[in-house]
Amino acid sequence: MTTIGLRRMGPRDPAEGHRAASPLELLFDLVFVVAVGFAATNLHEIETEGHVSSAILSFAMVFFSIWWAWLNFSWFATSFDIDDWLYRVMTFVQMAGVLVLAAGVGPAMQDGSFTIVVVGYVVMRLALVGQWIRVAVSSARYRSTALHYVVGITVVQVFWVAMLLLPAHAQLFVAPVLVFFEVLIPIWAESRAETTPWHRHHIAERYALFTLIVLGEGLVASASAVIDGLRDAEHLGPLLVLAAGGLVIVAGLWWIYFSREQHEHIRGLRSALVFGYGHYFVFAAAAALPAGIEVAVSADAGEADLSHASVAATIAVPVALFVASIWALALRPSLSGRSNVVVVVLTLAILASIAVPEVSLVATALLVAAIVVVLEVAALRPTR
To answer: Does the CA dihedral 37-38-39-42 come out positive or negative?
Structure first.
């Protein structure tokens, strides 16, 4: 240890026993949930106005910036978290970037103005560049990998800033290209040099904890339905059904996600990339569900400019996407062929329930519960 309290940023032991999320990582997650909550709130507002397609596109874009910054920090921390004062300060800088990004979620989703979101995003990414520079200085083994990250991230951030100089309509075409290059950076850095020493159990726990927090937003939305119902006795019955259905759905999604161990799916670079990137759909679906519940509340009060089928879709589609994503990432290998078919059929039935919007919520809740039963029965009869 040096006189100023810094340590060399060497790699963590990927086989370290009893590795758990640190208090700093947990605080980091909570800050990100602020941005997720703002995105879900704006998704609800835009969907209620009847602009479903534009709401989904803007939400997907904004959520990428939130998710990608969280993902990159989490995988970095599982490999190089040394928890000295400079590491903490640079992590707090990333948190500050999250709060700036959160402030720009509304303008981005409502007006198509991504300036504040890009500023917050670039702050987060450049703070991580500083961490990678420390790795390059401290570890000869991982220096090449770290420098690949430094160069890749920095170059793309320059283009993000340059994008702000373009007209708004041009930004809509440039942003997906930059997203593509962002996604390529870890593939390029990890495959060209030494693969970073991630801790399988630790990173699986990090994903699980973030899933818990995002699903918690659905419980808040269900509670809001009850509160609204108590204020207006005329709509009490439907809102209580909505709250109960929302609770069953959230509990079922939690059960489905945690029904199998997931660390075993993080073996080599390819499986780690599939696991990490595939969770975009898990997180995005979980984050969109509370917006769907709030849309249903607004529709019950006659405040949503949407058809009944569209209201049903705001809940059924995120639920089906969540189940399909976690099935593909973690459940499918552990199930027999028959069980896999049943899960897929039940997931498709969730989407089909949109055709009968009057009972779609109840049907979705019952179908999610049925998937839970299938998984529990399959656990009693493991495949060979």
So the answer is: positive
